[in-house]
């Protein structure tokens, strides 16, 4: 194992294809180079740790993270209390339980499926916009459509706005805040760090003030949206404070947005590289369901979880990981572990038993998984149906700097026509 394997994984020059590095990493299932994080990269070990109550998601339980290159990456969120994503039971369970009541089963079983028609309308409108843009520019192969800026980015933000109950006239403001906060997760070595931090802080404050006002309005005049139900609470001991509500709403916005953007964009890139599967999806839209599951294995939107800490000394594959040590669980490496998946580097939407790690597992499995899956299924099947002869204009495309939330920053394609 090379000493610099973690540096190579974080190196932008390897962003387009980190999988050979993950293969190298799996040769040492628990890698530690003397300082920094303990890195776990094999499927069965990651899956077991995601279900292990001895592992904490609360960084306050972490000791000195000397040498951890991802330590302190989210310090800018200190204005709000930690979201349940970064808490352990029982606080995690209380907040997640309250958030889940208006979001999905068993209390709101039709919340997501009931949005299917609205999601389809949003997708249709965005693709219509692509067609209008082509008509105005008369573009051919020399230009192209940026599926990230024109589709993958605006789609999830609009969905989150509708879910939370943001008034339509305020959605444009929400998009600006979401874009600024998303940019803060993607370090830009060429940007002015001070200006960037100023813009991020301003967006975070404006969003917080807006949401606080919306929460108070929903407490007085509740609707059938998710924010109204969260603000209403559910009996004694089951009410979120305003700060907890703000933290939860921010989590839904950022986590829900980033995961879905990457899932859709990685999905289209993979389909464009596998034109036979793309054509099959156009003819068989029902293929979208297993296809998205294979995408979550093959090109997961979240590559690794860098915030795990043992609450006591634990042993994994013969290696003792001490209490308080930083740990990384490399989901994308586990998803291509040949000890778990046959021909793991092959994209196969007919693959059976796709028990992937793409949305995590255990108590911290992706809260928005049902929504992300439905968004990706509708988006990819409709893009496949309506884009006639789509093709990449740049492969590999330029990627985002972020090694954790991995996906193309732009995905420029040309097509002969956009079907109605």
From TrEMBL:
<keyword id="KW-0560">Oxidoreductase</keyword>
<dbReference type="GO" id="GO:0004497">
    <property type="term" value="F:monooxygenase activity"/>
</dbReference>
<comment type="similarity">
    <text>Belongs to the cytochrome P450 family.</text>
</comment>
<keyword id="KW-0349">Heme</keyword>
<keyword id="KW-0503">Monooxygenase</keyword>
<keyword id="KW-0479">Metal-binding</keyword>
<dbReference type="GO" id="GO:0016705">
    <property type="term" value="F:oxidoreductase activity, acting on paired donors, with incorporation or reduction of molecular oxygen"/>
</dbReference>
<feature type="region of interest" description="Disordered">
    <location>
        <begin position="52"/>
        <end position="90"/>
    </location>
</feature>
<feature type="compositionally biased region" description="Basic and acidic residues">
    <location>
        <begin position="52"/>
        <end position="61"/>
    </location>
</feature>
<feature type="region of interest" description="Disordered">
    <location>
        <begin position="96"/>
        <end position="115"/>
    </location>
</feature>
<dbReference type="InterPro" id="IPR001128">
    <property type="entry name" value="Cyt_P450"/>
</dbReference>
<dbReference type="InterPro" id="IPR002397">
    <property type="entry name" value="Cyt_P450_B"/>
</dbReference>
<protein>
    <submittedName>
        <fullName>Cytochrome P450</fullName>
    </submittedName>
</protein>
<dbReference type="Pfam" id="PF00067">
    <property type="entry name" value="p450"/>
</dbReference>
<dbReference type="InterPro" id="IPR036396">
    <property type="entry name" value="Cyt_P450_sf"/>
</dbReference>
<dbReference type="GO" id="GO:0005506">
    <property type="term" value="F:iron ion binding"/>
</dbReference>
<keyword id="KW-0408">Iron</keyword>
<dbReference type="GO" id="GO:0020037">
    <property type="term" value="F:heme binding"/>
</dbReference>
């Amino acid at each position: 194992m090379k000493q610099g394997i973690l540096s190579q994984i974080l190196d932008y020059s390897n962003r387009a294809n980190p999988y050979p590095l993950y293969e190298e990493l799996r040769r040492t299932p628990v890698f530690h180079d003397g300082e920094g994080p303990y890195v776990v990269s094999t499927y069965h070990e990651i899956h077991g740790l995601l279900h292990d109550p001895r592992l904490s998601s609360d960084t306050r339980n972490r000791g000195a993270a000397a040498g951890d290159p991802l330590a302190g990456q989210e310090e800018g969120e200190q204005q709000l209390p930690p979201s349940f994503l970064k808490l352990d039971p029982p606080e995690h369970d209380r907040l997640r339980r309250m958030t889940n009541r208006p979001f999905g089963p068993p209390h709101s079983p039709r919340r997501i499926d009931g949005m299917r028609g609205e999601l389809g309308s949003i997708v249709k409108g965005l693709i219509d916009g692509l067609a209008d843009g082509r008509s105005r520019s008369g573009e051919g192969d020399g230009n192209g459509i940026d599926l990230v800026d024109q589709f993958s980015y605006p789609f999830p933000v609009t969905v989150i706005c509708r879910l939370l109950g943001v008034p339509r006239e305020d959605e444009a403001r929400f998009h600006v805040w979401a874009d600024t906060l998303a940019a803060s997760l993607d370090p830009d070595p060429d940007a002015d760090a001070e200006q960037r931090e100023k813009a991020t802080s301003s967006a975070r404050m404006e969003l917080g003030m807006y949401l606080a006002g919306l929460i108070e309005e929903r407490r007085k005049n509740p609707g059938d949206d998710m924010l109204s139900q969260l603000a209403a609470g559910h009996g004694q001991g089951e009410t979120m404070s305003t700060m907890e509500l703000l933290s939860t709403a921010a989590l839904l916005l950022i986590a829900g947005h980033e995961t879905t953007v990457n899932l859709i964009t990685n999905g289209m890139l993979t389909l464009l590289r596998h034109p036979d599967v793309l054509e099959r999806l156009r003819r068989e839209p029902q293929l979208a369901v297993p296809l998205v599951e294979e995408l979550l294995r093959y090109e997961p939107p979240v590559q690794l979880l860098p915030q795990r800490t043992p609450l006591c000394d634990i042993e994994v594959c013969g290696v003792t990981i001490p209490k308080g040590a930083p740990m990384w669980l490399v989901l994308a490496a586990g998803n291509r572990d040949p000890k778990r998946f046959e021909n793991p580097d092959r994209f196969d939407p007919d693959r059976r038993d796709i028990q992937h790690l793409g949305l995590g597992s255990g108590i911290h499995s992706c809260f928005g998984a049902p929504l992300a899956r439905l968004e990706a299924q509708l988006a990819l099947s409709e893009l496949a149906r309506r884009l006639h002869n789509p093709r990449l204009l740049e492969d590999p495309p330029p990627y985002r700097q972020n090694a954790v939330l991995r996906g193309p920053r732009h995905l420029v394609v040309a097509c002969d026509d956009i079907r109605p």
